[in-house]
Amino acid sequence: MLTNSELRRMARESLQGNWVNAVLGVFIYGIILSVMANIPLIGWIGAIVITGPLTYGLYGYYLGTVRGELTSVSNLFDGFNNNQFGNAFVLNLVSGIFIFLWSLLLIVPGVIAALSYSQAYFIMRDNPGIPALDALRQSKEMMNGHKTRLFMLYLSFIGWILLGMIPLGLGMFWVQPYIYAAMAAFYEELKNQNFSTPYEEAPRSYTL
User: Fold this and answer.
1) Would you tell me the crossing angle of helices 172-194 and 147-155 to the nearest 10 degrees?
2) How far apart are CA 45 and CA 104, in angstroms?
3) pLDDT band, residue 199 (cuts 50/70/90)
4) Percent of the chain scored above 90 by pLDDT?
């Protein structure tokens, strides 16, 4: 298994020559959701509707970048095509509900749930048409025994996040692409280890 430093190195290498698009994508993603969130009622509803498809596009962009594929800022909107929009919307809605319900118990169960479902957008990107619940189920299976690894990967960015907050948080536009690329590298390694087969529909049973 790759170490956190090796995953971060993969992320940096994938971003070489791609920093402009990577930063621009994070900027557009944040601006769209911020504008929607600041419009009472209609904007809030709109944010709920578009967050899933936008996040699908963002994760897909970084996964493609880590794989050395030709990517562009337009990939941010890949989740709005007819084949992906509904599933990406449901994925955001259902995962948010599940994480919220687990968080009602205590913070730790909520964090564990978020880690368990963390690979779902990547899985959906690799398996167009996969239903949201199946993507969440596969993510949960994939993360079995690896949640601590991902949590420690997140923690390894604390220093970068603190630096990114100076000045006025503008540095986060460079730190966030670094984190997303490392997440994509983590998924790619995990997928190559355990989940190399394409999606096949499983019996309809699911537990949180």
Assistant:
1) 160
2) 23
3) low
4) 74
Per-residue pLDDT, averaged over 33-39, amounts to 88
Q: Which of 178, 126, 173, 128 is nearest to 153 (CA)?
A: 178
**pTM recorded for the entire structure:** 0.89
Could you give the CA distance from residue 177 to residue 8 in angstroms, rounded to a whole number? 11
Tokens of 94: 């259902």
Dist. CA 157–CA 176, nearest whole Å? 10
φ, ψ for residue 205, nearest 5 deg: -140, 140
Sign of CA dihedral 76, 122, 114, 2: negative
Position 136 pLDDT exceeds 70: yes
Residue 201 corresponds to which tokens in the numbers above? Answer: 């529909």
Mean pLDDT, rounded, of the chain: 90
Q: How far apart are CA 25 and CA 12, in angstroms?
A: 16
d(CA 172, CA 177): 8
Closest CA to 103 of 87, 89, 115: 115
Q: Quick check: 122 and 91 in contact, CB under 8 A?
A: no
- Distance CA(200)–CA(15), nearest Å, equals 32
**154-168 per-position pLDDT tens digit:** 999 999 999 988 878
What length is written for the chain? 208
Q: CA end-to-end span of the chain, whole Å?
A: 27
Contact (Cβ atoms closer than 8 angstroms) between residue 57 and residue 77: yes
Residue 110 clears pLDDT 60, i.e. is over it: yes
